[in-house]
Amino acid sequence: MMFSMNNKIKYDLVLKNGNVVLPEGIQKIDIGVINESISDIGDLSSADAKNTVDCSGLHVLPGVIDSQVHFREPGLENKENLESGMLAAAAGGVTAVFEMPNTDPLTITPETIKDKLQRASRVAWTDYAFYLGGTGRTGPNLDKWENAPGICGIKIFMGASTGELMTASDEEVESVLSNGKRVVAVHAEDQYIMQENMKTILKDQTDVSLHSVWRSPESCFSATKRVVSIAKKYNRRVHVLHITTSEEMDFLRKNKDVASVELLANHLTLHAPDCYEKLGTLAQQNPPIREKHHQDALWVALNDGTVDILASDHAPHTLEEKSREYPKSPSGTPGVQTLVPIMLNHVNSGKLSLERLVELWSYGPERIHKLVNKGRIKIGYDADFTVVDMNKKNTITNSQQRSKTGWTPYDGMDVIGWPIATIIRGNVVMMDDEMIKPIGKPVIFQETILNNND
Ligand code: DOR
């Protein structure tokens, strides 16, 4: 791809001749950028520009927002840090990330949010925001804490996963949902059911394929029903993360008035029992990867509008940690760098349209998290673009991965569709797999602005 420069100034950047995914459909059109924002969309063939990116034969998507990643800093930097996590994201075509609070210390106070913002400001390859963890104890503080800059929402874990954050009982969930107004994102696995299953199903067995049995469909369904019922009680919306079962999807389809829904690329791509046979503990994540009939139900829900957001849940653990005997092996897989190629490959296989994909990873986060001028290709919006080649054939490999962990469950997978450039607020951050410069900033949210101006 050509990245050319000339000296006459009007636009800071023009993206020429791309197939641009606009809210009204795909059009072959140019985009002009001034001061990090989209200033023109149209025929700019005779316009002056400091920089031009020739997008002939390529698709220009609104920047991909991965609204669920775990980057491990502070405390667990042997797995990942903010710099390596965001480097991997930008390398994979992602322009913004929302990072989870199960770090060490947990991100559950204003001070821990400030600390992450400070750390990120020095090293960010993408734009970023952080989840504030909600607990039974901190719930009553959410009203005054939740609108600090850089917070994308509140996260609760109803079942134990990596780290110490847990909000298992109805009383604790109520303590979060009865306070504050921001979106509450929920890891819906029922700790009490899983504890019982651990005694009766897992016992002292070491077969990783039991992962989806003791962390059962019933445990997910129970937690999802409980949190939706509490949300109704407090007239509050919840965002239910990484749904894995057909039962939950049928239930959520009927409860869209209170619940939005997020899916993961892994759950749409891998399925049991094959993934456990092929990948062993590398396929171990929470909630688990399940059988094909559940995956089929996720695809139906993705295409019928039940699903609002698609994310990676990038959850890096080292290969050494993953090679421990199950269940001592940690749950989670890296995924922020493979999200775009994996999903473009699904588009090329006819599983969803490119327009629907853009709804799920750009318009969905814009709507659910109430972003300010981010998430679509529209005049006045941030000039964030993920430029992709829908025809490029490539093989995903461990050696391409920029995450500290250096592995992917998709090692050796042939895909069609590849990210060619990552452009963040008009700055070219990645082109043709070459990393250029980290320029990330905090994402801005409508409610942060509203609540800090009165
Ligand atoms: O598999 C998972 N790993 N699920 C989670 O919810 C947490 C994540 C992690 O942080 O490792």
Overall 3D shape: globular
Whole-Å distance between the termini? 48 Å
The Cα radius of gyration reads 21 Å
The percentage of residues in β strands lies in: 25-35%
Instruction: Provide the domain count.
Output: 2
The residue-averaged pLDDT reads 96
**CATH second-level architecture of the largest domain:** Alpha-Beta Barrel
What is the tally of beta strands?
18
Helix amount: 25-40%
Describe this structure in words.
Helix 1 (82-91) links the parallel strand 7 and strand 8. Helix 5 (191-202) packs antiparallel against helix 7. With 454 residues, this protein is α/β, with parallel strands linked by helices. It is 30% helix and 25% strand. The chain is globular, with a radius of gyration of 21 Å. The site of (4S)-2,6-dioxohexahydropyrimidine-4-carboxylic acid has 10 residues, from loops.
Brief digest:
The chain is α/β, with parallel strands linked by helices.
What labels describe this entry?
2 domains; Urease, subunit C, domain 1; 10-stranded mixed β-sheet; alpha/beta; binds (4S)-2,6-dioxohexahydropyrimidine-4-carboxylic acid; TIM Barrel; 454 residues; 8-stranded parallel β-sheet
Q: Could you give the topology of this structure?
A:
Elements: E1 3-5, E2 11-22, E3 25-34, E4 37-42, E5 49-54, E6 59-62, E7 64-69, H1 82-91, E8 94-99, H2 110-121, E9 127-133, H3 142-145, E10 151-157, H4 170-177, E11 184-187, H5 191-202, H6 211-214, H7 217-233, E12 238-240, H8 246-253, E13 259-264, H9 265-269, H10 274-279, H11 292-304, E14 309-311, H12 319-322, H13 339-348, H14 354-369, E15 385-396, E16 413-424, E17 427-431, E18 434-435, H15 446-452
Parallel strand pairs: 2-5, 2-6, 7-8, 8-9, 9-10, 10-11, 11-12, 12-13, 13-14
Antiparallel strand pairs: 1-5, 2-3, 3-4, 6-15, 15-16, 16-17, 17-18
Helix pairs in contact: 4-7, 5-7, 7-8, 8-11
The protein binds (4S)-2,6-dioxohexahydropyrimidine-4-carboxylic acid.
(4S)-2,6-dioxohexahydropyrimidine-4-carboxylic acid (DOR) binds at residues 70, 102, 161-162, 187, 285-286, 315, 331-332.
